[in-house]
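Fold it.
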Amino acid sequence: MCRPSATFAVWSSAWLNGAAASDDVLDALLAWGEAHDVVAADAAAAEAFALPLAFNRAATPVQLLMALRSQGAKSMRLVLPVPGDVRGLGGGGPFTEAALRAGDAVVLPELGFGLVPQPIAEGLVRWTVYSLASNSAPEYVGLGEAEHGLTDAIRNSAGALQALDVASDRPGVRAELSAHLRARPDVDWPAGTPGRALRVLQRAEEIAAILVIASSDDPGGALSASASSLRAQALRPLSDAVRTAQCAAVNEAVRVFAEQTAREG
């Protein structure tokens, strides 16, 4: 599903490039928690962003936004890492470990820092700024390429599941899918977000909801250990394609907002 880092990347990029107000960014983050605060994980991040270290009183998201502007942040990239795929995280170290635990992060490749959101209490999300172990930008995947990859993965996964006889119909699956989709946070996007990016993001999120249902062991799914393992293998390419599409859609929106400012300048 869509992640806090996606919301932050798109809305803060819109703000940095004059397409949204800071209050718009803060309002958008409310979809993920009633309150947000910010800390630095290490001394370099604390100094660069004028933020307190993690064991001190936290800063506010407004302070983070102002720090991004003062640092001259121009681009940011969404990453959705999973075990075995940590591309774009700048090597190992605390940032990679935190991003893997959270499952999402924002990388600031030009600045050499990354941000990781983590719910730490009911209604409270903490954003931690980390120095990157090495300054490597996430691999660029174009939106068209990601969309085609998602379409191919859907087709291939359907065929593989049918061959494994683990794709049999489940009673009430449509209601189950609708419930998953309704449970998503109600996320808004800035005016000017590319329409194609939004369409790809919506499709990826619908497939992500289907994956949650297909991966469960409810009646109608594969119940034996061996069948479950085969099913997981069949679904993995589709899960990877969903993550790639989500990142590509968000990163395309960030790119469009940045290019609008460049053209105006």
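The CA atoms of residues 153 and 264 lie 39 Å apart.
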